[in-house]
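== Folding the chain ==

***
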Amino acid sequence: MHVHTIHSGMCTVPVMRSFCRECYTEPEALYEGLKRLRMDLVTVTDHDSIDAAEPLRRHDDFFLSEEVTCTMPSGTGIHLGVYDITEAQHVAIQRRRQGLRALLGYLDEQGLFFTISHVFSSLTGRRDAADFDWFALRFPGFETLNGHMLQRLNRRSAEMAAELGKAPVGGSDAHTLESAGRAWTEVAGARTKKEFVAAVRGGRAGVAGEAGSYVKLTRDVLRICVSMAKENPATLVAAPLALLVPLVTAGNYVTETVFGWRWAAQLRRSRRAGTVGRQPDASPAV
């Protein structure tokens, strides 16, 4: 329920965004890899893209989803997983994603199930206290197992989801083929896509698989670097910078740990004060 292909676009790291992709996995290779891992259904959540659908729509066990980049009323950025959509709905979603209110209105109107991705991660930048009020009041699902987030951060998301009665979703958030399908969402007894999606929406799904780790993230970043060099040999001039990857990923997890601890502590204080889930500010969206 959270996995990427080559259609997720360019990476967001300054400088590298001009020549390095988020992911180099081709859709068909991803599909075949997930089926080898015995996934009964397959979806793809590329960043603001459904281009992976073209080679995969012929499979009866594939359904279309995407990870939407959206701007909150506070001006912060988030990622939403939006599931089982049509191409026309994708176009409408992309037209509205710069403002949360317009986007949520459309998702509700269409009856689409959606989640907040990596709740306690700094991946999309800063958070605002009001963001969590929006998550509590308007988001039907939380990603409670992300295959690249540390276990303690996943646990905080799961605890918040349980407290608020949110539907849990899990996924690998894989940007390499090797990590795909290592975390997943499952529904006991579901026989069809319709039954599966309905059960997930109703909060009757379970999540399973691996959380993230320093070794896993470092390995995947290095794999992306290798794929980048294969696609564009000119980038080999930057190969010595790969020696810095272990330091960069270590710094990332320190930042993630501090970020998650800070917001979990603030939310605990808010719960004691009874202010979690208050009505968000009604001012115009940024």
